[in-house]
Design a protein that fits this description.
two-stranded parallel sheet, about 45% helix, 2 strands, about 10% strand, mainly alpha
């Protein structure tokens, strides 16, 4: 993905899903790290509370559903 999209210095790795804890160890040099629940999604409540934890875990499923819906719209347009 890095080469395909010409990602380099200054790119952001968004940690999400049940494997988000792995992101800091996988972070390429020069990249920033963001937490989906804390830095990307608009979630009411305090970081670290139960809602934030579930938003963080469910983020990949929401992304896949969104991409699927976009594809369906293109195919039926």
């Amino acid at each position: 993905m890095i080469a395909l999209h010409d990602l380099g210095q200054g790119a952001v790795l968004v940690a999400a899903g049940c494997g988000a804890f792995l992101a800091p160890g996988l972070l390429p040099a020069g990249w920033a790290l963001a937490s989906y629940a804390d830095d990307v999604a608009a979630v009411a409540g305090a970081p670290g509370d139960e809602l934030h934890r579930w938003v963080q875990v469910g983020a990949p499923a929401v992304a896949v559903a969104s991409l699927f819906a976009q594809q369906l719209q293109r195919e039926t347009a």
